[in-house]
Request: fold
Amino acid sequence: MSDPITSMLREDRVFEPSAHFLENIGAIAVTDMASYTRMYRQSIDDPTTFWGAIAKDFHWYRPFSTVVQWNAPDAKWFADGTTNVCANCVDRQVQSGHGDEVAIIWEGEPCAPEPDVRRLTYRDLQRDVSQTANALKSIGVRRGDIVTIYMGMVPELTIAMLACARIGAPHSVIFGGFAPNAIVDRVHDAKSKVIITCDGGWRRGSVVPLKKNVDDACEKLPEVEHILVVQRTNTPVTMRAGRDLWWHEIVAAQSTECPCEEMNSEDLLFLLYTSGSTGKPKGICHTTGGYMVYTAYTAKTTFNLVAGRNHVYFCTADIGWITGHSYIVYGMLPNRVPTVMYEGAPNFPAEDRFWAMVARHKVTHFYTAPTAIRAFMKWGDQHPAKHDLSSLLLLGTVGEPINPQAWIWYHQNIGAARCPIVDTMWQTETGGHIITPLPGCTPTVPGSCTLPFFGIDAAIVDDKGEELPPNQGGLLVIRKPWPGMLRGIHGDRDRFIETYWSRIAGMYVAGDGARRDERGYFWIMGRIDDVINVSGHRLGTMEVESALVSHPAVVEAAVVGMPHEIKGTGIAAFVTLAPSFTGAADDSLRRQLAEHVTKEIGAIARPDMIRFTALLPKTRSGKIMRRLLRDIAAGRDSTQDTTTLEDFTVLAKLRESDE
Ligand code: WT7
Reply:
């Protein structure tokens, strides 16, 4: 476990909570470290009192009488309570007299001459979500049926998710950048009969053919009964009679009344697929009550949201990832702070798009990823400098460890050296933040995600589960259940246990290496499995290898991460060509293979470097020696013990063969 990103530059300065923030935020969620420590202790020692009080602030049809039941690895939160997440996001705001406040500020990508902005109030949402829910019912969607959503970042995406939640139909959102094959695997695994999509999506001025991708996927998915299509780009699409329906036709015809289903707290709210070391992506299961309480409470506390104080929150993630689920939609709406949803690319029409948006909407809270910050740095300081960013009060980052240079740049150029930065560490599986500063109280150190959130019994342990002393790297684990934790992998109990719970009995193993420093702050060192974090997105190296091997020219492939200036980790592929392949091993073939991976998985999986090799370094038992490949990809001289190398010459040859 090396620390390539955080070791680039040391930055030992400690940043105390900013006076500007404290004066302007409205009310401070957690005011000082003594309060944090006291609340943290209670959350760990007495979760029933701690979470019971927080959960009571939500609407329950039948109140819960138990808070947590724990029989590792199975947790139940608020188990006998009944509620509805959509009701808590939307109806409750209308019923309490806030129906005309803005819930979502949406901005489309095209902006000639002016960007297309839509503001949806809670009342608008209630109407649109109800009609959509009725439309879903009218095409046969019942409580418990999983609906697949493959859309661009349009308001109808949020509306579709809330409509599913309203009628108790779990959703499975697939990121719009994935290729048809990825849709096939996920729809098949979820057994979805209904897919919601768009004709196309805007990305950097071009149209992503979303409906066409769904059509291609459906050639292998005869079980799909209906495809509901939102018209966004007005590009021509094929509509198959009987199967395909236009959203604007079927939704508009529905009643605007649709009661919320009374859901059990542990009913499935959604599935979200994420990559692992082996096999196909796994459908992470999140349930109703615990996820709702955890995302809304972490959002409120970590971002210090205060309703009625003109806060405007902008998270730049795509809703196709967990960040968007938790911190554009579900964590935001119950807090009654408008959430900005942006359709397109950060550099369209120019590199200042986000800053123009911050100024236009008077954004107070801005949440993005280190990979984006590195791109902003590269694009230049002049872009943020052109705009009035004085509305900003808080900045956030998520997705991978942030290198101190990027932290400092963000702090100075975006935050005017007066906004706290919350470096929020979490995962698809954790539902919400697990390790993060609290902006009103936690002193921050660039590169550290600081301290565990309430209820998170995080520790750094060795392989036996023994806690390690300060500054010793080990496994990041969580030793107690928390409300937002995953409840399983869809349809694969064994994999759930094997992946997270088998390494150390009774502890959740996150899959990250980390250390704690003398003050107890956590420093994430990176994944310990065959998962790489590319631009803050998780990718299984095996998925990329399978895609490469499915090309006729390739017999074997090994994929590892390599340092990359913008992406954090780039993708390096070592490829052995088939004896039957008679063409040249040249740049044209490299391009073809990269295209092939893009076509099979999506652009996020496109290799940054492809190296041809006659043999791959393997141990005697035939395992590919990935550490060696990582060193070669990074241009490092390997100090690894190579005595088990089957063929020493492989290594020398790989080093010689320059790209
Ligand atoms: C992995 C989870 C949670 C939304 C984004 C990614 C890495 C995430 C941080 C951070 C260091 C981070 C970890 C984690 N990660 N946030 N603030 N500092 N590392 O979700 O795709 O489920 O990936 O992202 O390695 O395990 P994900």
User: Anything to note?
Assistant: The longest strand covers residues 554-564.
